[in-house]
Amino acid sequence: MQQPTVAATVEPLPAGSVQINGAGATFPLPVYTEWAYAYQYVDPSVVINYQGIGSGGGKKGILDGTIDFAGSDSLLKDEEYTAGADLQMYPMLAGAVVNVYNIQWAKEIPTGTTLPALVLDRQTLVDIYNAKVTKWNDARIVALNPGLAEYLPNAPITVVHRSDGSGTTEIFTNALTSFSPDWVAGGASSVEWPVDKAGNGVGGKGNQGVAASVINTPNSIGYVELSFAISNQMPFASMVNKAGKTVIASADSLASAMNDFATAFDAKLTVTIVDASGDGSWPVSGYTYLILHTQNMTDFVKAQKLLEYIQWSLTDPSAAKRAGDLGYSVLPGAVRDLVLAKLGQVTVNGQPVLTK
Fold first, then answer.
1. I need a labelling partner for 301 at 20 to 30 A (CA). Which of 45, 54, 257, 262 fits?
2. What's the pLDDT tens digit per position in 111-140?
3. Which listed CATH number (3.40.50.1100, 3.40.190.10, 3.40.50.720, 3.90.550.10) goes with 97-260?
4. Domain positions in the chain
5. Do residues 254 and 233 make contact, with C-beta atoms less than 8 angstroms apart?
6. Direct distance between the N- and C-terminal alpha carbons of the chain, in angstroms, rounded to an integer
7. Helix (H) or strand (E) holding 47
């Protein structure tokens, strides 16, 4: 499939002369930071600034016109499409939401012994966040973890969740909703947490805040995007997925989840990929999106440079490697082609920014 190309800039622009500002989801913040740094060597005229303020903040910013693009793992609502009629979401990457934990083991670990990763199944994860499983040595956790049984403490579980409007939360709670009818708080970027009502819930702002709270709170568990677990060297639980297979979060298990839903994109180019059916699929997976104005941008050069950057992010092998090294999975070829074709519909003052 021939992809649209960006119309050539007439003359080279001075270094740093085009400032492009984005904000939103913290879920992709590590890779967006890496990409922005690398891109200054691809096109020195462009400076990409991206602030991780949460998906809700990103959506507000693109609607208010205070940023050039938004990052979001949370899908635009009908009323947001009404307020911003020309807004379009573009999937950029897939990421895994994992449960990091800080367990104070009940006995000393013998020298030379490496404990296996904690394993949780879908129902037990729901029960933890519903405050129905409240101790680390609960029989349901012990049954899933025979290799950890003697080490699991008779200690209360502190559950850390996001305190801000969050696409990571939307992915996670959509998964909990699919896992069990017992999860009644719903799937959304912000929910009423049963653990808060029970007194064992703690809020953290951003993926960074949740990771920090788990690190600093003994016997805690919380959900973050995989790259935050990797960068903080935090252990995270494996999961028994819908197919009954124990899987770890990885680029391969993310790719499996994406493939399970490869033909499920709606007309808005969005899809939910939680609780995939494949044997190797990670059950708490999600796309992270960029949100752009497709008709209301007024600066042609800035729009052109922004689309060049997005094309590079989606197609350059070094960009893909940076994403993979951080634990993300790049788009399958067919999905990438859909996104690139959709970018061809962006106009400034009625003029297409991309040319065939």
1. 54
2. 999 999 999 999 999 999 999 999 999 999
3. 3.40.190.10
4. 5-93+288-355, 97-260
5. no
6. 11
7. strand 46-52
